[in-house]
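Researcher: I've been going back and forth with a colleague about how Antitoxin might be arranged in three dimensions. Neither of us has a model we trust, so I'd like an independent prediction. The organism is Sinorhizobium kummerowiae, in case that matters for your notes. Sequence below.
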Amino acid sequence: METIDIHEAKKHLSRLVQKASRGEAFIIAEAGKPMAKVVPLNQPAPHEKRRIGFLAGQITVPDDFDLMGREEIEGLFGK
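Model: Here is an independent structure prediction for Antitoxin. You can compare it with whatever you and your colleague have in mind.
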């Protein structure tokens, strides 16, 4: 992630805002010390990145799911 000095950020604020809006996050530093991280508004927060259960309530699993294709699988593995 790119680090930009605060004085450069002041000079090029408009360009940097456009950069962030395209999804390019960056850090603003003062005297080499990171002060702020600029990210686009639509970027999910770290706690929002969880994917487990994201389709909950949107799909159904048939009751015989564990039996689907049983004969074919048994034929492939010689059972």
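Researcher: What would you highlight for our discussion?
Model: I'd start with this: The chain has a mean pLDDT of 87. After that, consider the following. The beta strands are 2-5, 26-30, 33-38.
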